[in-house]
């Protein structure tokens, strides 16, 4: 009889974490997005939230917290309870670059990188009715005229400033809160060219906007004729991943549930349709171990470049 009781207790202890994982969450979740509504991250995030909501069985409410290229949102996340109910969806440059050039209230080890679901598509864009359409033409025009550039993150601004200095351009920087703020400036010709983290996909099919060059390490499969900055002779690229991120210390069983929800979303047709068909980001699924390595690898490489 004693052995039977011990066996039952042992089985209960072994199945408790699994049961807890199945029961979580028990209340609504919050997805923080570090950019204003209307940009590519916001568009992807809202569909991702809907798909995760269906998988988890609880509402996933989206909260936009723009500022500092997501630095404001990461600061919020760093001060959030590590229970998994609040997580961030966004790119990783606020971790791999921003802390190098400006004081922030967080660091890489304050977070855990659960899963990436899309590859970043960072681009230089301009309006289709400008007197230039390629990056070389932008540079040529800028040698004779003052230019205005709309930035969204500290990283894209730093890259463009370095190129402008190397090329002798008189360049004015206009900050924006994300793609939703960038697009009307470009389309209204209030700026000459701009950074786009993916919002251009809404306007290139209509012919309103053109991609002059990609900041990504490789050409976009959706714009195969458009070169990267590296191909044009500028040794700069932005390697970025749209990632689900939580504060350090979230219980393993909760992380497992969020990772499973993200993996489910990466195969959901609604998420694939909006991410690849609307924002032109390749959908992927990269798990936690690889993403933890990616963030630290890119950060180390960026620190080396900035030191030079």
Topology:
Blueprint lengths: L1 H22 L5 E5 L6 H17 L3 E5 L6 H8 L7 E5 L2 H4 L1 H4 L9 E9 L3 E5 L7 H8 L4 E5 L2 H14 L3 E5 L3 H9 L5 E4 L12 E6 L26 E7 L4 H16 L1 H10 L4 E4 L1 H20 L1
Parallel strand pairs: 1-2, 1-3, 6-7, 6-8
Antiparallel strand pairs: 3-10, 4-10, 4-11, 5-8, 5-9
Helix pairs in contact: 1-9, 2-9, 2-10
What does it look like?
This protein has 308 residues and is an alpha/beta fold. The chain has 2 domains: 29-120 and 240-307, Bordetella uptake gene, domain 1 (D-Maltodextrin-Binding Protein, domain 2, 3-Layer(aba) Sandwich), CATH 3.40.190.150; 123-214, Periplasmic binding protein-like II (D-Maltodextrin-Binding Protein, domain 2), CATH 3.40.190. Helix content is 43%, strand content 19%. It is built from 11 helices and 11 strands. A 6-stranded mixed sheet has the order 2-1-3-10-4-11, sandwiched between helices. Helix 2 (40-56) packs across helix 9 (252-267) and helix 2 packs antiparallel against helix 10 (269-278). The longest helix is centred in the first third of the chain and has 22 residues, at 2-23. The termini are far apart. The model is unreliable at 1-9 and 15-20 (pLDDT under 50).
């Amino acid at each position: 009889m004693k052995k039977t009781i011990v066996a039952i207790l042992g089985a209960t202890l072994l199945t408790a974490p699994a049961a807890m994982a199945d029961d979580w969450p028990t209340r609504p979740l919050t997805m923080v997005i570090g950019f204003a509504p209307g940009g590519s991250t916001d568009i992807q995030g809202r569909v991702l939230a809907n798909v995760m909501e269906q998988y988890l069985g609880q509402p996933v409410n989206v909260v936009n917290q723009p500022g500092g290229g997501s630095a404001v949102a990461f600061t919020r996340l760093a001060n959030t309870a590590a229970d998994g109910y609040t997580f961030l969806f966004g790119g990783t440059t606020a971790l791999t670059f921003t802390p190098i050039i400006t004081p922030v209230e967080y660091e890489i080890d304050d977070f855990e990188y659960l899963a990436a679901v899309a590859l970043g598509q960072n681009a230089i864009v301009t309006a289709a009715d400008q007197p230039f359409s390629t990056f070389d033409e932008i540079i040529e025009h800028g040698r004779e005229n003052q230019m205005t550039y709309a930035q969204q993150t500290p990283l894209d601004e730093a890259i463009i400033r370095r190129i402008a200095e190397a090329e002798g351009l008189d360049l004015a920087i206009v900050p924006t809160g994300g793609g939703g703020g960038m697009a009307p400036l470009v389309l209204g010709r209030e700026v000459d060219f701009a950074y786009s983290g993916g919002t251009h996909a809404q306007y290139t099919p209509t012919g309103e906007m053109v991609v002059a060059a990609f900041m990504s390490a490789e050409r976009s499969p959706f714009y195969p004729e458009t070169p990267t900055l590296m191909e044009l002779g500028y040794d700069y690229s932005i390697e970025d991943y749209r990632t689900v991120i939580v504060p350090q210390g979230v219980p393993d069983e909760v992380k497992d549930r969020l990772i499973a929800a993200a993996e489910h979303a990466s195969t959901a047709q609604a998420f694939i349709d909006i991410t690849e068909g609307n924002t032109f980001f390749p959908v992927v699924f990269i798990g936690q171990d690889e993403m933890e390595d990616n963030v630290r690898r890119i950060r180390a490489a960026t620190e080396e470049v900035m030191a030079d």
